[in-house]
Amino acid sequence: MANTKYLVIACNIMKDEILRFQTNGISFVFLEQSLHRTPQKMKPIIQEEIDRAAEQELDYIILSYGLCSNGILGVKANRHPMVIPKVHDCIALFLGSCNRYMEEQKKEPGTYYLTKGWIEEGKSPLGIYKEYCQRYGQETAEWAIKEELKNYTRIALVDVGTDLSETHREHARENARFLHLRYEEMAGSLAFFEKMLRGWWNEDFIIIKPGQEVTQELFLNF
Amino acid sequence: MPEITTLKEELQQAIIKGKRDAVEPLVRKLLFDGLNPEAIMNDVMIPAMDVVGDQYSRNEIFLPEMMIAARAMNIGLDILRPMLTAQGALGKGKVVIGSVKGDIHDVGKNIVSMVLQGAGYEVIDLGIDVAPEKFIEAIHQHQPKFVLMSALITLTMSMMDETIWTFKKAGVREKVKIGVGGAPLTQKFADQIGADFYGKDARAAVIKCNTLI
After folding, report:
1. Residue range(s) of every CATH 1.10.1240.10 domain in chain B
2. What CATH number matches the domain at B93-212, 3.40.50.80, 3.40.50.280, 3.30.2130.10, 3.60.70.12?
3. Considering A175, A204, B71, B137, which has the largest number of Cβ atoms within 10 A of its Cβ?
4. Using CB atoms, which residue from B62, B184, B186 is nearest to A69?
C-alpha cells in the first residue's frame, strides 16, 4: 500500500501521538482544541478543511475526531471516502481502545483525563480556571470551576509514551490539589493511533462513502 | 401597577445576570406588594432561566454564567418553596429525576429540577450516577408520575436505553411517563429508546410534563 494517500484532519491535542506515525503519503492538518467546549463550532471548521481537500488526489480522509459531543455531526466529504475512529471522544484514542475507556469510566465515572497535549493546550481545569478568572474575577471563577467539576473524583494523567516531563506531571498534580482530587498516572497506548494511521481499520473505525454525512447512529450501539 | 412591573423586570434581570444579593430583597418586595408566589415563579423567575438557557444554547454566554444565574434563582426558590407548598401549589405530582448511571454531570439536571419545582411539581432528585435499580426503587417508594433522566455525554446515552429496558423487565415501565434530556440528545434518540418525551431544555420539560399529567 506504498502509494496510498491519506489526509489526516485532527485535533491539535493529539499532534504528537499522530506524528509518531508520519510516513510518505500522509499529509496532516491540525485544528485547535478549544473546539471541545463549543462543539457547535466544530462542524464548520472541520468541513472547511474537508472541502479544501476536495481537489487533492487522496484515497481516504482520516478524520481523527470522536463523536466529540456531537461536534462532527453533519460533516461530509463529497469526493473522498472518510475514516473516523468509532469513539465518543479522544480519551479512547489515548487509552488505546474503547473497551479500556469504558472500563475506566465504569470504575470511576468522575475521572478528568489529562494528556501531554491537553496540558500544553492549556485545557486542564487550571487552564479553564485562568480563562474564567479573566472573565469573571477570581472569586467567581473559583466557585464556577469547582462547582462545574464538583462530582469529579480523580485526575488521571494518561501516559502514552510521548515524552511526559516532570513539568507535565507537576501541572497535573497541581490540578488535583486545586480541586482536592486524587491524582493518578495511567498507562495509555499508541495502538489506536497506529491502527488508524497504518490503515488497519477494523470494527473500531467507521468508513463512510463520499457524500455520506456523519450521524450519531454511526457511533452509538443499540 | 407600574411599580410591580418594574420590580418584576428588576428581579428577572437579577436572575439573568446572577446578582444573587439582589434576588432576596426583590422577591420580598414583590410578595409585600401582593404578588403571589406562583406568579413570581411563573411570570418572572422561570422566564428568566429561559432567557439564560437560550443565550447558552446560542453560545452567547458560557457555562459559568448559566450556573451563576441558577444559583441566583435558587435563592428565590428557597424563599418561595415553603409558600408554594403551603398553598398546595406543588400539587401537580411527583417527578423522580437523576443523571443516569455513569454520568456525573448535573448542572442541567439541577436546573430542570429547580424549574419543575417552580412550576408546581414535587421533585425527588436522585442525584448523579443513578443506576436503573435506584430509579426502580424510587418508583416503588414514591409512585411518581414522571421519571426524568439526564445524560450530558454521548458515552452515557446508551445507559438510558438500558434503564428503560430494566424498567420493562421489572414491570414498572407502564407506571410512569419517561422523559429524557441532555445536551447530546435528540427527539429521534428519545423515540428509538422508547421514552415518552424528549425535553430540549428546562422549559420544554415542564411543558411536556404539563401536557402529560
Report:
1. 2-87
2. 3.40.50.280
3. A175
4. B184
What whole-number distance in Å separates Cα of residue B30 and Cα of residue B55? 26
Residue of chain A nearest B153, judged by CA positions: A69
Q: Which of B56, B100, B155, B180 is best to mutate for the A interface (most A CBs within 10 A)?
A: B155
Q: Give residue A2's pLDDT.
A: 56
pTM across the whole model: 0.91
CB A77 within 8 A of CB A56: no
Residue range A170-188, pLDDT digits in tens: 999 999 999 999 999 999 9
A144/B68 touch (CB, cutoff 8 Å), yes or no? yes
Contacts A104 to B, Cβ<8 Å: none
What are B191's three cell numbers? 423515540
Count Cβ–Cβ pairs < 8 Å, chain A vs chain B.
64
Query: How far, in Å, CA of A154 to CA of A181, rounded?
Result: 5
Q: Name the helix (H) or strand (E) containing B137.
A: helix B132-142
> Is the Cβ–Cβ distance between B89 and B120 less than 8 Å?
yes
Q: Do A40 and B106 touch (CB under 8 A)?
A: no
Give bridge partners of residue A10 from the DSSP assignment.
Answer: A30, A64
- Range list for CATH 3.40.50.280 in chain B: 93-212
Which residue from A135, A136, A151 is facing B128, i.e. has the nearest CB?
A151
CATH of domain B2-87: 1.10.1240.10
Asked if residues A117 and A154 have their Cβ atoms less than 8 Å apart, the reply is no
Q: What is the DSSP string of A80-120?
A: S-EEEE--SSHHHHHHSSHHHHHHHHHH-SSEEEE-HHHHH
pLDDT, tens digit, 9 for 90 and up, residues A16-63: 999 999 999 999 999 986 666 677 788 999 999 999 999 999 999 999
Residue A75 contacts residue A211 (beta carbons within 8 Å): no
